Amino acid sequence: MGVHGIGGALGNFAAPVAAAFLIAAFDWRLAALVLALPAIILIMGLIVNLQPGQKNDHITFGKGPSRNLLLLGINFGLITMLYRGFLAFLPTWVLESNVSLVSAGAITSLMLIVGVIAQPLGGIVYDRFGGKIIFVMSPIIAGFALLLMTWVEGWIVVLFIVIIGASITMTFPVALTTASSLSGAAAAGMSVGLVFGISTTMSSFTPLLTGVLADQLGLDSAFRLLIALPLLATLMTLFLYSNNRMTLACATKDNNS
Protein backbone atom coordinates (compact mmCIF):
# COMPACT_ATOMS: atom_id res chain seq x y z
CA MET A 1 0.00 0.00 0.00
CA GLY A 2 2.90 2.34 0.69
CA VAL A 3 4.41 1.71 -2.75
CA HIS A 4 0.97 2.15 -4.27
CA GLY A 5 0.79 5.55 -2.58
CA ILE A 6 3.92 6.66 -4.42
CA GLY A 7 1.93 6.69 -7.65
CA GLY A 8 -0.77 8.87 -6.12
CA ALA A 9 1.76 11.33 -4.73
CA LEU A 10 3.58 11.58 -8.06
CA GLY A 11 0.29 12.07 -9.90
CA ASN A 12 -0.87 14.80 -7.53
CA PHE A 13 2.46 16.57 -7.99
CA ALA A 14 2.83 16.13 -11.76
CA ALA A 15 -0.74 16.78 -12.92
CA PRO A 16 -0.98 20.56 -12.27
CA VAL A 17 2.57 21.08 -13.54
CA ALA A 18 1.88 19.14 -16.75
CA ALA A 19 -1.51 20.79 -17.25
CA ALA A 20 -0.09 24.29 -16.82
CA PHE A 21 2.72 23.58 -19.29
CA LEU A 22 0.41 22.03 -21.92
CA ILE A 23 -2.23 24.75 -21.66
CA ALA A 24 0.45 27.43 -22.04
CA ALA A 25 1.94 25.65 -25.06
CA PHE A 26 -1.36 24.71 -26.78
CA ASP A 27 -4.92 25.22 -25.52
CA TRP A 28 -6.95 23.49 -22.82
CA ARG A 29 -8.75 21.12 -25.23
CA LEU A 30 -5.54 19.73 -26.71
CA ALA A 31 -3.97 19.68 -23.26
CA ALA A 32 -6.85 17.52 -21.99
CA LEU A 33 -6.37 15.08 -24.86
CA VAL A 34 -2.62 14.83 -24.24
CA LEU A 35 -3.18 14.22 -20.52
CA ALA A 36 -5.64 11.43 -21.37
CA LEU A 37 -3.14 9.52 -23.52
CA PRO A 38 -1.11 7.94 -20.69
CA ALA A 39 -4.33 6.69 -19.08
CA ILE A 40 -5.53 5.17 -22.36
CA ILE A 41 -2.18 3.45 -22.92
CA LEU A 42 -2.21 2.10 -19.35
CA ILE A 43 -5.75 0.77 -19.75
CA MET A 44 -4.70 -1.16 -22.86
CA GLY A 45 -1.69 -2.56 -21.01
CA LEU A 46 -3.83 -3.70 -18.10
CA ILE A 47 -6.36 -5.37 -20.41
CA VAL A 48 -3.57 -7.39 -22.00
CA ASN A 49 -1.48 -8.22 -18.94
CA LEU A 50 -3.58 -8.06 -15.77
CA GLN A 51 -5.00 -11.36 -14.62
CA PRO A 52 -8.49 -11.25 -13.11
CA GLY A 53 -8.74 -11.89 -9.39
CA GLN A 54 -10.66 -14.74 -7.86
CA LYS A 55 -14.37 -14.08 -7.89
CA ASN A 56 -16.26 -14.24 -4.59
CA ASP A 57 -20.04 -14.11 -4.77
CA HIS A 58 -20.46 -14.38 -1.01
CA ILE A 59 -18.70 -11.23 0.21
CA THR A 60 -20.72 -9.71 3.01
CA PHE A 61 -20.42 -7.82 6.27
CA GLY A 62 -22.89 -10.21 7.88
CA LYS A 63 -24.90 -8.01 10.22
CA GLY A 64 -23.17 -4.90 8.89
CA PRO A 65 -19.79 -3.21 9.19
CA SER A 66 -18.10 -3.75 12.54
CA ARG A 67 -17.96 -1.00 15.13
CA ASN A 68 -14.18 -0.88 14.85
CA LEU A 69 -14.35 -0.47 11.09
CA LEU A 70 -16.73 2.47 11.37
CA LEU A 71 -14.58 4.07 14.08
CA LEU A 72 -11.51 3.60 11.89
CA GLY A 73 -13.29 5.36 9.03
CA ILE A 74 -14.22 8.31 11.26
CA ASN A 75 -10.70 8.45 12.69
CA PHE A 76 -9.13 8.50 9.23
CA GLY A 77 -11.79 11.01 8.19
CA LEU A 78 -10.66 13.47 10.88
CA ILE A 79 -7.07 13.20 9.67
CA THR A 80 -8.13 13.65 6.05
CA MET A 81 -10.24 16.66 7.00
CA LEU A 82 -7.13 18.43 8.25
CA TYR A 83 -5.29 17.56 5.04
CA ARG A 84 -8.05 18.80 2.73
CA GLY A 85 -8.78 21.96 4.69
CA PHE A 86 -5.13 22.90 4.94
CA LEU A 87 -4.25 22.05 1.33
CA ALA A 88 -7.23 23.96 -0.11
CA PHE A 89 -6.07 27.27 1.39
CA LEU A 90 -2.32 26.74 1.54
CA PRO A 91 -1.64 28.64 -1.75
CA THR A 92 -3.73 31.59 -0.53
CA TRP A 93 -1.95 31.61 2.83
CA VAL A 94 1.46 31.53 1.13
CA LEU A 95 0.50 34.36 -1.24
CA GLU A 96 -0.51 36.49 1.73
CA SER A 97 3.15 36.30 2.79
CA ASN A 98 4.03 38.36 -0.30
CA VAL A 99 5.76 35.62 -2.27
CA SER A 100 5.45 35.09 -6.01
CA LEU A 101 2.92 32.81 -7.69
CA VAL A 102 5.76 30.52 -8.74
CA SER A 103 6.98 30.22 -5.15
CA ALA A 104 3.46 29.55 -3.90
CA GLY A 105 3.04 26.80 -6.48
CA ALA A 106 6.41 25.27 -5.61
CA ILE A 107 5.62 25.24 -1.88
CA THR A 108 2.24 23.63 -2.49
CA SER A 109 3.92 21.03 -4.70
CA LEU A 110 6.24 20.12 -1.82
CA MET A 111 3.17 19.36 0.29
CA LEU A 112 2.04 16.89 -2.40
CA ILE A 113 5.32 15.29 -3.47
CA VAL A 114 6.45 14.46 0.07
CA GLY A 115 4.04 11.51 0.00
CA VAL A 116 6.49 9.71 -2.30
CA ILE A 117 8.66 9.14 0.77
CA ALA A 118 6.09 9.34 3.56
CA GLN A 119 3.66 6.69 2.32
CA PRO A 120 6.13 3.80 1.93
CA LEU A 121 7.68 4.88 5.23
CA GLY A 122 4.26 4.62 6.86
CA GLY A 123 3.88 1.15 5.36
CA ILE A 124 7.25 0.05 6.77
CA VAL A 125 6.37 1.34 10.26
CA TYR A 126 3.02 -0.46 10.07
CA ASP A 127 4.63 -3.75 9.08
CA ARG A 128 7.13 -3.59 11.95
CA PHE A 129 5.21 -1.94 14.77
CA GLY A 130 1.52 -1.93 13.82
CA GLY A 131 -0.79 0.98 13.09
CA LYS A 132 -1.30 2.43 16.57
CA ILE A 133 1.98 4.35 16.66
CA ILE A 134 1.18 6.00 13.30
CA PHE A 135 -2.40 6.91 14.24
CA VAL A 136 -1.27 8.40 17.56
CA MET A 137 1.89 10.26 16.54
CA SER A 138 1.12 11.48 13.00
CA PRO A 139 -1.89 13.69 13.91
CA ILE A 140 0.00 15.13 16.90
CA ILE A 141 3.01 15.98 14.74
CA ALA A 142 0.80 17.50 12.02
CA GLY A 143 -1.17 19.61 14.49
CA PHE A 144 1.95 20.83 16.29
CA ALA A 145 3.64 21.72 12.98
CA LEU A 146 0.53 23.58 11.81
CA LEU A 147 0.44 25.61 15.01
CA LEU A 148 4.11 26.56 14.70
CA MET A 149 3.70 27.41 11.02
CA THR A 150 1.14 30.11 11.81
CA TRP A 151 3.47 31.78 14.33
CA VAL A 152 6.78 31.90 12.45
CA GLU A 153 7.92 33.86 9.41
CA GLY A 154 10.36 33.30 6.58
CA TRP A 155 11.34 30.17 4.75
CA ILE A 156 11.22 28.03 7.90
CA VAL A 157 7.48 27.74 7.23
CA VAL A 158 8.37 25.47 4.31
CA LEU A 159 9.84 22.96 6.76
CA PHE A 160 6.61 22.88 8.75
CA ILE A 161 4.55 22.50 5.57
CA VAL A 162 6.65 19.49 4.56
CA ILE A 163 6.26 17.99 8.05
CA ILE A 164 2.47 18.44 7.87
CA GLY A 165 2.30 16.78 4.46
CA ALA A 166 4.57 13.89 5.46
CA SER A 167 2.88 13.14 8.78
CA ILE A 168 -0.61 13.11 7.27
CA THR A 169 0.12 11.16 4.07
CA MET A 170 1.98 8.58 6.17
CA THR A 171 -1.41 7.52 7.55
CA PHE A 172 -2.96 6.78 4.14
CA PRO A 173 -1.58 3.26 3.55
CA VAL A 174 -1.85 2.47 7.27
CA ALA A 175 -5.57 3.27 7.41
CA LEU A 176 -6.44 1.21 4.35
CA THR A 177 -4.31 -1.75 5.38
CA THR A 178 -5.76 -1.69 8.89
CA ALA A 179 -9.21 -1.83 7.32
CA SER A 180 -8.17 -4.97 5.45
CA SER A 181 -6.82 -6.62 8.59
CA LEU A 182 -10.04 -5.92 10.50
CA SER A 183 -12.28 -7.62 7.95
CA GLY A 184 -10.06 -10.38 6.59
CA ALA A 185 -9.34 -11.23 2.98
CA ALA A 186 -12.93 -12.13 2.10
CA ALA A 187 -14.20 -8.57 2.56
CA ALA A 188 -11.00 -6.55 2.28
CA GLY A 189 -12.10 -4.60 -0.77
CA MET A 190 -15.44 -3.68 0.74
CA SER A 191 -13.81 -2.65 4.03
CA VAL A 192 -11.20 -0.46 2.35
CA GLY A 193 -13.93 1.13 0.24
CA LEU A 194 -16.01 1.86 3.35
CA VAL A 195 -13.14 3.49 5.26
CA PHE A 196 -12.06 5.48 2.21
CA GLY A 197 -15.65 6.51 1.51
CA ILE A 198 -16.28 7.72 5.07
CA SER A 199 -13.06 9.74 5.10
CA THR A 200 -13.75 11.26 1.67
CA THR A 201 -17.29 12.26 2.65
CA MET A 202 -16.14 13.85 5.90
CA SER A 203 -13.24 15.73 4.31
CA SER A 204 -15.36 17.07 1.46
CA PHE A 205 -16.89 19.61 3.86
CA THR A 206 -13.60 20.88 5.28
CA PRO A 207 -12.71 23.42 2.55
CA LEU A 208 -16.13 25.05 3.07
CA LEU A 209 -15.68 25.07 6.84
CA THR A 210 -12.15 26.45 6.56
CA GLY A 211 -13.31 29.15 4.16
CA VAL A 212 -16.08 30.29 6.51
CA LEU A 213 -13.64 30.43 9.42
CA ALA A 214 -11.07 32.28 7.31
CA ASP A 215 -13.64 34.91 6.27
CA GLN A 216 -14.61 35.52 9.88
CA LEU A 217 -11.29 35.16 11.70
CA GLY A 218 -8.50 35.13 9.12
CA LEU A 219 -6.54 32.21 7.70
CA ASP A 220 -4.10 31.94 10.59
CA SER A 221 -6.92 31.50 13.09
CA ALA A 222 -8.76 29.13 10.78
CA PHE A 223 -5.68 26.91 10.50
CA ARG A 224 -5.22 26.96 14.28
CA LEU A 225 -8.81 25.83 14.78
CA LEU A 226 -8.19 22.91 12.41
CA ILE A 227 -5.79 21.55 15.03
CA ALA A 228 -8.84 20.25 16.91
CA LEU A 229 -9.26 17.61 14.17
CA PRO A 230 -5.96 15.72 14.69
CA LEU A 231 -6.41 15.96 18.47
CA LEU A 232 -9.81 14.27 18.16
CA ALA A 233 -8.26 11.66 15.85
CA THR A 234 -5.56 10.85 18.42
CA LEU A 235 -8.10 10.48 21.23
CA MET A 236 -10.23 8.23 19.02
CA THR A 237 -7.18 6.10 18.23
CA LEU A 238 -6.51 5.48 21.92
CA PHE A 239 -10.16 4.52 22.36
CA LEU A 240 -10.13 2.34 19.25
CA TYR A 241 -7.03 0.38 20.23
CA SER A 242 -8.26 -0.10 23.79
CA ASN A 243 -10.84 -2.47 22.31
CA ASN A 244 -9.64 -6.06 22.68
CA ARG A 245 -10.89 -7.11 19.24
CA MET A 246 -8.97 -4.29 17.57
CA THR A 247 -5.79 -5.22 19.42
CA LEU A 248 -6.25 -8.89 18.55
CA ALA A 249 -6.80 -8.15 14.86
CA CYS A 250 -3.63 -6.06 14.63
CA ALA A 251 -1.60 -8.57 16.64
CA THR A 252 -2.70 -11.33 14.29
CA LYS A 253 -1.65 -9.22 11.32
CA ASP A 254 1.76 -8.60 12.87
CA ASN A 255 2.31 -12.32 13.55
CA ASN A 256 1.38 -13.21 9.99
CA SER A 257 3.84 -10.59 8.71
Write up what this structure looks like:
The protein has 257 residues and is mostly helical. The protein has a single domain, classed as MFS general substrate transporter like domains (Growth Hormone, Chain: A, Up-down Bundle). 82% of the residues lie in helices and 0% in strands. It has 13 helices and no strands. The chain has helices at 2-25, 28-49, 67-95, 101-113, 115-129, 132-149, 156-169, 171-183, 188-203, 206-217, 219-226, 228-241, 244-256. Helix 3 (67-95) packs antiparallel against helix 7 (156-169). The chain is globular, with a radius of gyration of 20 Å. It starts with a helix and ends with a helix. 33% of the residues are buried. The mean pLDDT is 84.
Taking the sheet with the most strands, its summary is: none
Low-confidence stretches: none
Q: Helix tally?
A: 13
Output the helix-strand order.
HHHHHHHHHHHHH
Q: How many structural units, i.e. domains?
A: 1
Shape: globular
Level-2 CATH architecture: Up-down Bundle
Overall mean pLDDT stands at: 84
| Strand portion | under 5%
Distance between the termini: 14 Å
Share in helix: over 70%
Backbone CA Rg: 20 Å
CATH homolog superfamily: MFS general substrate transporter like domains
> What is the CATH level 1 assignment?
Mainly Alpha
Output the structural class.
mainly alpha
**What fold name goes in the CATH topology slot?**
Growth Hormone, Chain: A
In total, the number of strands is 0
Outline the secondary-structure elements.
Layout: H1 2-25, H2 28-49, H3 67-95, H4 101-113, H5 115-129, H6 132-149, H7 156-169, H8 171-183, H9 188-203, H10 206-217, H11 219-226, H12 228-241, H13 244-256
Helix pairs in contact: 1-2, 1-4, 1-5, 3-4, 3-7, 3-8, 3-9, 3-10, 3-11, 3-12, 4-7, 5-7, 5-8, 6-7, 6-12, 8-9, 10-11
